[in-house]
């Protein structure tokens, strides 16, 4: 039901847009939904966050069976086929499209912090960020820098 309402919102929001802008907005909404899903799976899994080599290990959700091969699209940018299924199964982050949280693996911190965010902004300079409270949002570069404490 929720996906239907999001699709309806996109259809209305993009009715007056050109095809390029429709694609950017649709991709952004898909990333928000995907990153929100990943963040919530991490929260349901419980603390501490899975870490590997000092960074959030999203692929732990694959190894634990929370994300199956049928849902690998959650781990990719819209309309992309990387990372490949094999890279995901190996835990290879070389082609993973998002930056990952580095630092403390404690979800109990009083203030929410970014878990995952776009490596590069979309063509409108917007980044999608998944937060430790389970939400995801689209922000500009200045907002991302503030969020990351830079």
Fold topology:
Layout: H1 2-14, H2 19-45, E1 51-52, E2 55-56, H3 60-63, H4 85-90, E3 98-100, E4 114-118, E5 126-131, E6 136-140, H5 141-147
Antiparallel strand pairs: 1-2, 3-4, 4-5, 5-6
How would you sum up this structure in a few lines?
By secondary structure, this protein is of the alpha+beta class.
Structure characterization notes:
This protein has 150 residues and is of the alpha+beta class. 38% of the residues lie in helices and 15% in strands. The chain has helices spanning 2-14, 19-45, 60-63, 85-90, 141-147; strands at 51-52, 55-56, 98-100, 114-118, 126-131, 136-140.
Describe the sheet with the most strands. 4 strands, antiparallel
SSE string, helix = H, strand = E? Answer: HHEEHHEEEEH
User: Termini, distance in Å?
Assistant: 39 Å
DSSP strand tally: 6
What attributes characterize this protein structure?
single chain; 150 residues; alpha+beta; four-stranded antiparallel sheet
């Amino acid at each position: 039901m929720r996906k239907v309402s999001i699709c309806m919102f996109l259809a209305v929001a993009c009715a007056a847009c050109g095809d390029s802008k429709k694609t950017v907005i649709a991709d952004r909404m898909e990333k928000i939904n995907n990153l929100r899903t990943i963040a919530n799976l991490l929260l349901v899994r419980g603390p501490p966050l899975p870490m590997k080599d000092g960074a959030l290990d999203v692929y732990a959700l694959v190894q634990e069976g929370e994300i199956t091969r049928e849902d690998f699209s959650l781990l990719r940018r819209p309309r992309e086929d990387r990372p490949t299924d094999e890279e995901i199964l190996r835990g290879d982050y070389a082609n993973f499209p998002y930056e990952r949280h580095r630092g403390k693996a404690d979800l109990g911190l009083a203030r929410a912090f970014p878990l995952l965010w776009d490596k590069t902004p979309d063509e409108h300079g917007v980044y999608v960020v998944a937060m430790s409270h389970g939400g995801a949002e689209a922000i500009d570069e200045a907002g991302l820098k503030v969020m990351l404490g830079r």
